[in-house]
Amino acid sequence: MSGTVTAVSSSGEYTFTKPNRASITLIAGLGVAGDVHAGVTVKHRSRVAQDPTQPNLRQVHLIHEELFAEVAEQGFTVAPGQLGENVTTRGIDLLGLPVGTLLRIGPEAVVEVTGLRNPCLQIDGFQDGLLKQVVGRDDEGNIVRRAGIMGVVRTGGTIHPGDTVEAELPPGPLRPLDRV
């Protein structure tokens, strides 16, 4: 399973959107160099408030560009980086990957998938009603999160738009993604 990086984004400040960059550098065990969410322990404000010693399972946020077309059908305009992601991809089913999948991005970087992004109300602050487009329920009433996946950096490297993304599934049994 493979795809392509269409954009990379980072911000050194707590902002909802992240500006696109020509490249970002991933640092093993920390995340995106210069990004406010980089670190060994949690950096997301709500998680820091609960327990600042928790391991940071959300070092890198990846989102599939195909989501932007889906929400556009409902009248929303979203571009890469605007939902706070670090890596925007195309052609790879990020939401269908199991926990522990290794994503080889570009020539060096490796990100291990830890789970689904659990989007918050800030999305409605960005565009009113968008949260309902990225979080919903399936026919059985289960919550379905579509706002991307989270991971930790296993091997550092610099990534650029146009780089390939190759998924390497973990040994079985495979565990479906859950929120992190």
The shape is globular
Architecture in CATH? Beta Barrel
Domain count: the total is 1
Radius of gyration: 15 Å
Strand order, largest beta sheet: 1-6-5-11-8-7-13
Question: Largest sheet, described in full?
Answer: 7 strands, mixed, barrel
The percent of residues in helical segments reads: 10-25%
Question: Structural class of the secondary elements?
Answer: mainly beta
Blueprint (SSEs and pairs):
Blueprint: E1 2-9, E2 20-21, E3 24-27, E4 31-32, H1 45-50, E5 60-64, H2 66-72, E6 87-90, E7 102-105, E8 109-116, H3 122-126, H4 131-134, E9 135-137, E10 143-145, E11 149-155, E12 157-159, E13 164-168
Parallel strand pairs: 5-6
Antiparallel strand pairs: 1-2, 1-6, 1-13, 3-4, 3-12, 5-11, 7-8, 7-13, 8-11, 9-10
Region (Disordered): 161-180
Domain MOSC: 18-168
Protein name: MOSC domain-containing protein
